[in-house]
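Q: I have 291 residues here and want to know how they pack in 3D. Can you give me a structure?
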Amino acid sequence: MALDRTWYNSLVNDDGSGTKGTIWRKEDVGTLMDTVDQEIARLDSMYGSVVVQRVVGISGVINDLELIPNVQLLLLYNTNPLTLTGMKAGIPGQLLFVTAVNSAPVYLAYRDNRSLPTNQLVNTVFTGVTPLAPYFGRALYVYDGDEAFWRLVNHVQGQALPIPWDATNFSTDQGGVPWNTTQASVGDLSYTVNGKTLAISTWLNNAGGSSLGGTTAKALRMKTPNNYQLGRTQLSPSILWCDASGVPTKVAIGWATLGNTYIEFVLDMARTLTWPTGVVGLIGTQFLEIV
């Protein structure tokens, strides 16, 4: 990036009389030196030896994380879940790797006003956090000097993260017909975010207590993790079983609708068939576009 010559171009040469030229004051020289220093720092951050910052003993929500000058690698050693809403503003073009290197996940929040605007993170996904799995998750940001924020340019979650079981995450399209689940009914419930694609791995077994409380429900509903909002209407298959032994007997349709924060499971494209009462199990993976 070339140096800003606006100030330089305003200078006027003297004609020898000592009255026409631009006077150089100490402040003017200081401005020039500051501009040169900033450009040198930018180049050092990109091509010089790597500046590493290790952060330990943090968890919960961290706003406006203080960064050492020209840091390029940020290692987060949190042992409890950490949500990062922003980092101290960098210099234009500064690259910063953010890495989860301990036993708990890191969640990177999009444009969170708990941090100053110039410290905020602009991620690919903006309706929920961008997750980093323990030990393996990493994200690369560049400081956008024109817009004045940290812009995500690459993200690797590292591995699937579990979705904590919550009975309120499961319902039906009929308010009077509950979809009952228990912790014991969860064989697997996990997710991965890759760009704007959300993959949800679902294994709910009927033997553990997954069941319906009525016969009029046409759609089972399961909330997306982190309240991600679906980016388009799409369909995907999911294996269904209804017998006590858990043998797959039918294939249900995973139904995602633009704008929703839940995915539905239906038995036919016309959404007219009703789910049988009693035990119900699901196994499968849905790949959904989110915003």
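Q: Anything worth noting?
A: The mean pLDDT is 90. Residues 63 and 228 are 22 Å apart (CA to CA).
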